[in-house]
Each structure stands twice: as structure tokens, then as C-alpha cells.
Give the backbone structure.
Amino acid sequence: MAGDVSPGRFASAMKDAVITTVIAAALFFFLVAYKTTLVTGIGLVLEQRWDRYLWLLVAVFVLRFSWLMLTGGRVRAPKSKVTITPRGDVMRYAGIALLLLGIALPFIITATAGRGQRLYLDLSILIMTYVMLGWGLNIVVGLAGLLDLGYVAFYAVGAYSFALLAQYTGLGFWACLPVAGILAGFWGMILGFPVLRLRGDYLAIVTLAFGEIIRVVLLNWYSFTNGPNGISNIPKPTLFGIDFGRGEGNFADVFGLDYSSSHRLIFLYYIIFILALVTNWVTMRLRRLPVGRAWEALREDEIACRSLGINTTNTKLTAFATGAMFGGFAGSFFATRQGFISPESFTFIESAIILAIVVLGGMGSQIGVVIASVVMIGGIEMLRNLDLLKSVLGDNFDPNQYRMLIFGLAMVVIMVWRPRGLISSRTPSIALKKRKRIGADMVAQGEGH
Amino acid sequence: MEYFLQQLVNGVTLGSIYGLIAIGYTMVYGIIGMINFAHGDIFMISAFIALITFLALAALGITMLPLVLVIMFVVAMVFTGIWGWAVERTAYRPLRGSFRLAPLISAIGMSIALQNFVQLTQDARVKPLAPQIQGGITLMEGANENGAIVVQLSYMQMFIIAVTVVLMTVFSLLVSRTRLGRAQRACEQDQKMARLLGVDTNRTIAITFISGAGLAAVAGTMFLLYYGVIDFYIGFLAGIKAFTAAVLGGIGSLPGAMLGGLLIGLIEVFWSAYFSVEYKDVAAFSILAIVLIFLPSGLLGKPEVEKV
Amino acid sequence: MATAGWQDNPILTVEHLTMRFGGLVAVDDLGFDVGKGDITALIGPNGAGKTTVFNCITGFYKPTEGRITMRHGEGDHGGALTEATGKGLRFASSGPASVHLLERMPDFQISARARVARTFQNIRLFGGMTLLENLMVAQHKNLMVASGYTFAGLFGLPGYRRANRQAMELAKYWLETVGLIDRADDPAGDLPYGDQRRLEIARAMCTGPQLLCLDEPAAGLNPRESGELNDLLRQIRQDHKTSILLIEHDMGVVMEISDHIVVLDYGRKIADGTPEEVRTDPAVIAAYLGVEDEEVDDIDVIAADMPEVATRAEGKRDGGGA
């Protein structure tokens, strides 16, 4: 495609790139060239940063020009070739490989990473938490086709249920975990009941509103939730009563190992790994049951579902509540891992990240969620450690600052370039002879009617 | 009574700002049936543009207030309009004809990106601006057990209400009388048919976004002048409340958006005054949920019949 | 004929049905019977309100006024009907006979309880699901009960596994009946138009209906396919004792397979009778040909020609089918 570099193409690409740069110049003039800085004693002063502004424009010009020269300006591939439709057995082997990798990961890290192992273990736990959240939300968004922008509310309900139960009753993690999940699922039903009749985009906005309501209540109900100060000293999980601290009767002592703070992290990793696997197993299982089939049918065509005697409100409600329950499990894991929670951790941005993971992975695809979590959460953490970037962009370059910017742009780019996500084919839930994967162009994604 | 009146004045002022933002939501929804989730952040960007313009003018030694205000409004409207156009061009136009939730997800991505872009370039701290339009007229004086109460209509509030009324009138005339407005309404009814009849739908949609952003810029500039503090996060809450206003008024209806804006402004102000400030956002969100559930076509909207 | 067959033993009775959308009266005081075991056709010019009637019967619209009674079982339904109507119930029964008042029931219950299934004018299949999955979704209610509302199914208890196998068998039977068994594992959206129509009928039959409502089942079919459709509908009536109510424009199909035809125009009933009666009814001819009032005199002439036109249309279709 890039073969034909005629003078005409050069000229038109040049013209287009110049126009783009002029527009970018207008867009960024105020927000990049000038910076408002608050100086104590003086007030707001205007800093000028023409160097950054010019570099940005040069970058825009070069990128746009080379993009046009290389691709001829086509953003999207032809319609049917937009998505990967891997063969069924490839997907299965990839799944098994990922499972084995997941089991072995802590050992690989402790064996190879040496002093940095805590960092990598922490990161693995974080990624696995997002995998679980992504799988939970995938039930709602991917299978049932309901766009839920307030998923973090159930994460918060799970976390606060555990933290408050532990604080007021002294119960441990394992006793509280099921309660937290059930409470979150229950909240899912209460919130879902009135709103699930709404159309897709209205539903999205109302779920967002509910997410914010829950956060504001947590923030202001000082006597119960301790408000913005949050809850601290949340108990750590134990292995059948064995703690992971230092000293006698604890894990290292009982098993005759040298004490290492990594033990607790490895244990936490396996907890979230198993929780995530349970989520996945239940989801896969439900897909083959009538309720799961009804979810997918609902995504395809709600009116047809009603004509077949399916109570769509109840069906949506079960999807919503099941997703919420797994969000609640993940929430109580989050609370026990952090040892401290506050409403700060449960903002809309968190919902957006989880949704981004589901969308980028390919709605409804379990492996897609894993890939997206690794790339989006892990990839950006990894950027931080790249010395190369630091040498180019200066020592105080912190990729974490750019994380949400990249997240947001990635959501836009993925929607434009590959609206069905990375992996978007679906496997039939039942087959007479052979399961054939169904290409993305066939599958509806909710609210398509 | 005096307290009530004062809150009424405050509520109408706030409602005017919400109403202007809500028009952007309602027009875009009317024409392409999507929630432009990034619209609140366009509003936020306009406030920053206005602030930087103000500071730049001060640095240049231009301090004549009417001139400064005019330049601020014009610059904010023009450059925010470009932002509105750029967002539509990059994040929404390529998604025409995609599945229904795709543009919404893209818009959420855009909203996150814009917020963080401003946070990166302008840092996360709040930016104050000293009040520029001071003074006012006293409507009523009274007293209660705490001492004297004065009901004041400040010049700033008069300014905001007046600008809103003028803009709304001009804008309604534009939509109902001009060729462009006709093209817009044609696209609302049936985009495919409008295209067949020679309406440049892409251009019409782009202009809708630009004008929505322009109105949001007026709202943003007035927000900056009225409250005197902005940060990168103001767009999120203002956006959701303005969207609530658009839904309450009946999405797709311009007078509805204005009416909804006024109601949301009043509800928020009265809730804060008589119940609790902490839960004022909860009040707004609850109204959104209640309206959508019980009155999905809003106060002035057209009811929708489900097609089977 | 003193009383027509459908009035002796109706499965569905529509009385005083009125549907208004704002100021527009789409259906106006309509009443008709659908005989048990009959194939009843609802015909009329475009915009006559046929689909609105369907949507009222299947619960997608709540009628402004009127009563729609679905009868199950043999015997005297009068007592149950009086009881349900008087007490504001959705259904009532006396002995083996039971009645369902459809205008009071939500749409999904009309399929699940009153056992009225339907298809759509613009086919509504689950395009991204396989043919087999489409037919399994249709058996949702039975499978849901068998899976113990998911809990038993989650752990694969034998009761559910058996129910699942039976559901598969039923799905296979219908796929064979409509001739699509070879494509069971393909996505429904991949099927050609005619096959999609048949699959939609098979899917509706998988819900185990007593009354099957078909909204323009022959629309867009070629002559061979509409011949196959006629055979399928007859087979459904014979083998499954399912009564059929259909909306159709293809007069060949209507005249050939219907036992009873109801004609609508502007939301009102203008004729009701056997194909022969309807075919020669002057009001019907006027409605179809759009005759002005002053030209009513000519109707007799046209009416005389009608049987011939209809026969010719049938002949042509049969010829195409051969």
C-alpha cells in the first residue's frame, strides 16, 4: 500500500499535515504555550512555554505527515478484517498457557527479580485485580450488553462491607468475603431494579450517577464510614489461621522458612488469582446455562427475547447482580490488600478504567480482558522503569501522570480503529457437531436495535 | 422570605449556566443520538482559555473591563469552538454507523483524555480569579433574629442572566429561521434522507458541535467570572448536571434544555440552602435517575414509541 | 351458515379493541374470533392497523380499550372469563378450561403463560448466535425451571442435563422440519432471507405455543419458498394442533391456506368470513383498489372479475413452484 509515493501524494500529504498543524496550533496555543501557575504572595501568573509548544507542533506535523505518506490516510481496515478471529483451538491453547503462566508467576518473579521482587509481585496482584474486575464487568457489558459506568460502586460496597464488618464485629477476611460479595450483589439488584428498563446510553448515565451517589454518601456519612479519612487497620487474610507476619507461629516459622515479606504478597497473589479464576469459571459456566444464553440473546435483540417469554427485567437484573457480586469480592480483596480504604479509591475514573479494559479486550472475550489488563496496567507501570524515556524526557518524567491520558486516548483510538476490541469473535455456547467461532461482524453489542 | 428570594436569584444564575451547557448536549443528542460525554470537559477547557486570555491581556496592560470581557468571550468561544470541532472530527465522525455504544465509549475516552491533558499542562491546583464585576442592587431589605438580611442582585448575576437570555433568543432564531437551522432539523429527522436531498450532514453535524462548544464557552467564561475558581475537574460535575438538565427538559428540545437548566440550578441551590450542602450532588443525581425512570421524554420532549 | 366454525370454538377472541397513539386512531373498535385449529388471516391495505393489532395481542402495545381473550383447554370458558374479567385477574380457570386476558399481561408472560408466540415483520433473530442457540433460547422458560433457576445447572445436576438433552432434541426436530439442520452451528445472521423467515417460525414453535402469530411470513419470499411456507404452516396445524393467525399481503398465500379471513381498513373491520366470501365482498375490493365513493357502482363489475384475478394469481404461483 505504501508503494505509490507519487509527487501528488506528497503534495497532498504535505498540505493536509500543514492544515492539521495549524489546527493543533490553535488547539494547544492556550493550554500548552501558556501555563497558569499559582505563586504565593503574587497570585496567578502566566508562564510561557514556547519550547514545549513548538516541539508538540513539530511532533504533530511529523506524525501526521508520515502517517499520510505511509497509509494514504486510511484509518480503518476494510470492515470485515478489523478484528482478529482466531481459531478455537488457538484460543484454548492460549488460555491454558496463560493459566500455567498465572500459576507459576510468583515463582518466576522470586527466582529472577531478586531485590525488585516486591515491586513485581505488587504489580502482578494489581493486574490480577483488574483482570477479575474486568471479568466481572464483562458479564454485564460483554454478555448482557448493558453499559454500566458505575461498576466501581460495587467495588466500593465490597470493600466497605468487609472493612466495616471487620471493624465492628472483628471477623476476618474469609468470613467477610462471601458477605461482602452478597451485599454487593444485593446492591446491584436494588440499584438495577428501577433503571434496567432504560435505553443503553441512559442506563450508562444513571449507573454513573449511582456510582457517584454511593461515593458521596461514603464521603459524608462520617459517623459510620469515617468520611474522607477512610478506614484503616483492615485485617490481613490468613492461611487457615496462620498469619504472615514475623515471629513464632506465623507462616515462615510453621513451614520452617526464612521470613520474607514476599510470602504475604505471594499469598495475596494466589487469593486474587483464585478469585479471578472462580469468576471466569462461573462466567463460562453461566454462558452455557439458560440464563447466560438469555443474556446474550438480550444483547442481540431485546424485543425478540420478550416475544419468547423471557422476562427481560429479571434477566438483566441477574446479569447486573452477578457482575456486582464479583465486583464486591474484588472490593473486599482490595481492602485487605491495602489495609486502608477511603472514598478516594472509588471515583468514576476507576469505573472508566475497568470499562476501558473490557472494551479494549473485546467485549465478551475473557482472554481479551487479560491482555488488556496486562497492557494497560502493566505496560504503563513498566514505562516508569525505562531509563531510556527518562534520558529523553528528563529525570522527573513520571509516566503515571500520563497514564489516564493514554487510557483515554486508547479508548478513542480503539473505538475508531477496531470498534470490537482486540479479540471479538464469540464461541457458541452449544453445538450440534462442531463449535465454530462467530466473527465479530455478526455479533451485536447491545442496544443495536 | 428574604432568604428564599436571595436563593431564587442565585438559583436562576446557576441555572443559566447549566442551561447554556445543556444546549450542547441536547443539540448533539438531537442530531446524532449520542451523549457527548466530553461536552463538560469542553466547558472546562473554555474556562481555562478565558482565564489565560484574561491573564495575557493583563500582562499586555489592557485593563479596560468591557474590552477585556468582550475579548475574553470572543476568544473563548472561537477557540473552544475549534476544540469542539476537533473532538467531533477525531473521536466521533469515524464512528458514524458503528454500533450504538461505540461513540459513547469514545466520548468517555475523550473526556478522560481532555481532563488529564489539562491536568498535565496546567497542573491540578485550583486557579483563582479575583471578582471583576462588583457591586449590585439591593432588591429588598429585611430582618430576622440574626440581624439584617439583604436580598441582592449583583451586577454579575444580572450580567449572566442577561447574556443567557440574549444568547438563547438569538440562538433559537438561528435554529428556526436560517438555512443552517433547517439543515440541522432535517438531520435530526432522518440523516440518510437529508443527505439524499443535498444536505451536507457532516458539515451540519460539525457546526452543531461548534455552536454547542461556543455556548459552553460562554457558560465557562461566566462560571469563571462568577465563582472565581476553576480546576481541571469542574467539567465532570457541571457536565453531568447539565446533561441532567437536558434530560429533564426533554432531550432534543432547546427550550427544554434551558428550562431544565433553570430547574436544576434552583433545585441545587435550594437543596444546599435548606437541607445540606454535602448532599447537593446526590440531589442532582437522584433527579437524573428519577426523571429518566418516570419521565423519560422529559418535560418538553416528544414521547418515543417503541418500534416493534 | 348460521354461525361460522370459528365462532363455535374460538381460541382467541378480540372484542372492542381500540388503540390510539396521541390523536391517531390506529385500531377502532375491532372484534373478531380466531377459531381453534384454524389458519386465520388478517389482511388489509398498508397502514390498516394490522401490525398494531398484532402488537396488542402479543403485549407489545397496551390497547387503549378492549378485551383480548385467549382460551386453553376444552369445555365451557364462560365462567372463567366472567371471573377473570370481573375480578381484574390476568387469567382464571374452571376445570380444564382456562382463559387469559392478554391485554392485562406483560409481553413476556403472553408467550410464557398464555402460549401465544409471534414472529416479526422485519425478522428479529439473534444474528450472532447459532441456529441451535436461537432455538435453545426459545425454550428458556422450561430450561430455567429445570436448571433450578441456574443453581442446579451451575453444578450440572442430572435433572438439568436431561432437560437440556430434551431441549436439544426439540431444537433438532424443528431444524429438520424447516430443513436447516445442516446449518445448525452457523450464525443465524449468515442465513439467506427465506431461511431466516423459516428459522424464526421454528424458534416461535420451540416455545410450545397454542397460537402462532405470523407477521407477513411470506414477505420477500420467492414463489418456491412461499410454497414451502404453505406446507410448513399446514404441517404445524396438523401435527401440533397449533392455531395460526397471520398477516399477509400475498393474496395467493392467503386465499390458498386460510380458513378464515378478517379484513381491516383504516383500523376498522370491513369484512370477516371464508376466503370465498371475502374475495367477492365489494367493500374489500373497494378498499384494495382504492375506489372513490362515486365509483361504487362499478364495484359489481370489478367484483365479477375478482375470482378470475385471484385464480390467475394462484395459477402463476403454482406454476412457479413446479
In short: The first helix of chain B runs from residue 2 to 32. The interface with chain C takes residues 305-306, 308 of chain B (CB under 8 Å). Chain B has one domain: 2-294.
